[in-house]
Specification:
The protein has 226 residues and is α/β, with parallel strands linked by helices. Strand 6, helix 6 and strand 7 form a beta-alpha-beta unit. It starts with a strand and ends with a helix. The strands form two sheets. Strands 5-6-7-3-8-9 form a six-stranded mixed β-sheet, sandwiched between helices. A three-stranded antiparallel β-sheet has the order 2-1-4, with no helix packed on it. The protein is globular. The protein has seven helices and nine strands, in the order βββαβαβαααβαβββα. Bound molecules: adenosine-5'-triphosphate (ATP) and magnesium ion (MG). Adenosine-5'-triphosphate (ATP) binds next to helix 1.
Length: 226
């Protein structure tokens, strides 16, 4: 993205952000309200820049979220923004239907994917009967089953228990696709290639994770007055 400016409700949310996102695993950190979720929403066309340009693998996300579905898989901060189907199997199969699979084929692949992640018995469960963390896992699996070229995760683990988080992190790292992950769980970002630190809608720092995490932790501690 190049010289991107974004206003929401007339207020600047991102100011002069220029980034080339080429590394396989990129983390995005920053305080509440710094603009992280807004920035990633530019990548799949859910938000459009007020000025500047955004391109994802040559595509312009302003063409709309539908056109971007095979390019960018987006896991939202809140699962209730994502889940639309009554059962887990239908939810996981939906994206595959959008990619052109028949109803039958989509269900077979979705079931196999649930099996692979140890959740075979969830297929017929009503989504509303799941706990928050279980819903979040359904959202994650629904996106990953489509194998998008870029996977964007907005605080994906906050509701997940420790074993599930470890399983998913390991699995995410084993995938060939590019990852862009927002997280307040700084430990989850240690294995990444690059971290970007947003502050008040600007890039405050950008680089090697160990250095960025250290700088962010220091700045956070300096701001705490107990
Ligand atoms: N739907 C919205 N309409 C208008 N302004 C919004 C909306 N959502 C967020 N904002 C504003 O945009 C700014 C950045 O918000 P954003 O959600 O991108 O932050 P964030 O870094 O993801 O924060 P968090 O860590 O809390 O998720 C904030 O000032 C916020 O008030
Ligand atoms: Mg956010």
């Amino acid at each position: 993205m190049d010289r991107v400016r974004l206003e929401r409700d007339g207020r600047p949310v991102l100011t002069d952000v220029s980034l080339s996102l080429n590394e396989p695993r990129i983390g995005l950190i920053g305080n509440n309200g710094s603009g992280k979720s807004s920035l990633v929403r530019l990548l799949n066309g859910l938000l459009r820049p007020s000025a500047g340009e955004v391109r994802v693998h040559g595509y312009n996300p302003a063409d709309g979220p539908e056109a971007m579905a095979a390019q960018v898989g987006f896991i939202f901060q809140n699962p209730d923004h994502q889940i639309i189907f009554p059962t887990v199997l239908e939810e996981v199969a939906f994206g595959l239907r959008n990619l052109g699979r028949s109803r039958k084929q989509a269900q077979i692949e979705a079931q196999a994917f649930l099996d692979q992640h140890g959740r075979a018995d969830w297929a017929e469960r009503p989504v509303h009967s799941l706990s928050e963390g279980q819903k979040q896992l359904v959202c994650i699996l629904s996106v990953l089953v489509m194998e998008p070229a870029l996977i964007v995760l907005d605080e994906p683990f906050s509701a997940l228990d420790y074993p599930t988080r470890l399983h998913l992190l390991d699995w995410l790292h084993s995938l060939p696709q590019q990852l862009l992950m927002i997280s307040h769980e700084l430990d989850s970002l240690e294995r990444f290639d690059r971290l970007i630190w947003l502050e008040d809608g600007r890039v405050r720092d950008d680089g090697e994770p160990a250095r960025i995490l250290d700088a962010y932790k220091r700045a956070s501690l300096a701001g705490v007055s107990l």
